[in-house]
Amino acid sequence: MSSTQFWVGMLVPPLVKWASPRLKKFFKLEEFDTKTRSRITTKQYPSYYAFFYALWILSLLSTGIIGLFLIMIYVPEIIPGTSYTVSLWLGLVNMIGIWFIAGALLDSIYWLISPPNFRDYVLLRQLKEGWGYDIKQQIITLVKIGVVYYLVMLPLILFLLFM
């Protein structure tokens, strides 16, 4: 295990636990009611739901990585004279924004096409992970965070483009 994996493993879970109540309060996210909690925790789910949920998460993570690679490949082609360092930093900055905005769009698509039983499984997994909030509110919150992220990062993006 590299030191990066060690530090990410040590720092990310406490950061998520610290950020969850603050994001809940700031965005006024509603937790699952007791009726929903009891419904999703008492059901038995097929084992293959874990595989589909893993595919869901993998597709969300892959959107940012695909964006990173596309930006790294095509920025030097579109803007001649830029170095690969610039395209790497542009890709990294945009990768996070893509995770927020494209992730929210994919979440909404997956949520709409999922059967009700699988939706309950997704709710259960999120409840176990400490994110027992309404999915539609989470999607709207992700878009808001993505827009704010791009507004904050716009000066850096413009600097990297016109460097």
Keywords:
163 residues; mainly alpha; 83% helix
Task: Give me the secondary-structure topology.
Blueprint: H1 3-27, H2 34-42, H3 48-78, H4 84-113, H5 116-128, H6 135-161
Basic shape: elongated
Share of residues in helices: over 70%
Low-confidence runs = none
Multimerization status: single chain
- The number of helical segments is 6
Structural class, by secondary structure, is mainly alpha
Question: End-to-end span in angstroms?
Answer: 36 Å
Strand content: under 5%
Mean pLDDT comes to 84
Rg from alpha-carbon coordinates: 19 Å
Order of helices and strands: HHHHHH
How many E-type strands?
A: 0
Main sheet properties = none
- Overall tally of structural domains: 1
Provide a compact summary of the structure.
This protein is 83% helix and 0% strand. By secondary structure, it is mainly alpha-helical. It has one domain (47-161).
